[in-house]
Amino acid sequence: xxxxxxxxxxxxxLLWHMTAYGLSAILEDAGLCGVSLAWGGAPAQPVPILSxxxxxxxxxxxxxRTHATRYVTEPSWVLADVELRGSARGLMSPRLTPFDTPKxxxxxxxxxxxxxxxxxxxxxxxxxRMLAALGEPSYWSRSRQDVALQDDGASRLExxxxxxxxxxVGSRLRKLAHVLAARTTGTIATGLAGSTCVDEIGGxxxxxxxxxxxxxxxxxxxxxxxCALWGISQFPLAQQSRGTARTTGHxxxxxxxxxxxxxxxxxxxxxxxxSVLVSRQLGDAAKAGFSGRWAADETxxxxxxxxxxxxxxxxxVRFPIERFGSDSAPERRAMLGQPVRLGMS
Length: 345
What we know:
Layout: E1 2-5, H1 14-29, E2 36-40, E3 47-52, H2 57-69, E4 81-84, E5 87-90, H3 102-121, H4 125-134, H5 168-181, H6 187-193, H7 222-230, E6 237-238, E7 246-247, E8 250-253, E9 256-264, H8 270-277, H9 280-286, H10 298-310, E10 313-324, E11 331-334, E12 338-341
Antiparallel strand pairs: 1-3, 2-3, 4-5, 6-7, 8-9, 9-10, 10-11, 10-12
Helix pairs in contact: 1-7, 2-5, 2-6, 5-7, 9-10
């Protein structure tokens, strides 16, 4: 087994956890054998280490470039658009401009189902996992005024601001795919390793929104951002007949909410990562130290911590979510993580 280290990663920044998750999924999708993810380095500042048979910087560079290039040529769900109110929007974006009529909704659903059928026929499992995790505009959830609450069906990890018609697929994924497909050999791997930082879509500005809510604004290498967004694929979404969908790795609602992820010893395959992320035990452990509405039952907390420790989990990192900007187009953002030690109550 060979290794690739995300050497500049910060365990207190959700972006880097998501980048490691997304990169491991992309490498596995590329056909590398034995892909696994571990945390190593200094105990005070561990970093993600990916392993696989024959893994190298060149292999990482090639896999991520090939993956991005897939989405800049037809057919590609990242290129597919739908016209809403006279403007093109990414068809597969989970949060879109409200549909004005039932016919528009039916047309959008027909087009979306066509994309899903194609991906199923080609056995594009990572794409299907990504789209399922992102969610889609809700048609079943409505306000007291009978207005469709489309955001109710979307992952809370999808934090692309909706100002001026922006949406995740057209405003973020599509742009990232194009710049990564055009990068020179080697620059994707160096960006992921942290030795370079090239922020094409954000212009390298101090207030660059390339992190898309997974970190505070700032210059972010576009390979890091691409892998981080694909990390959402590892967080299953549970739709509900009433109210908002339940996002794996998320606690709370409205203005009191958090994301949470584990830190572990040993190497995990992507399937093990997904099973722990979605577990009730991790969610219970993430509530340690809370009081009131989000507090964990003490018995459940004790059992959860024992279950997690048996699987190598050393702790949980909890990221408070803050809102910025206007109420009409709020910008949600995961703030610096708070370590939660197993055994804490």
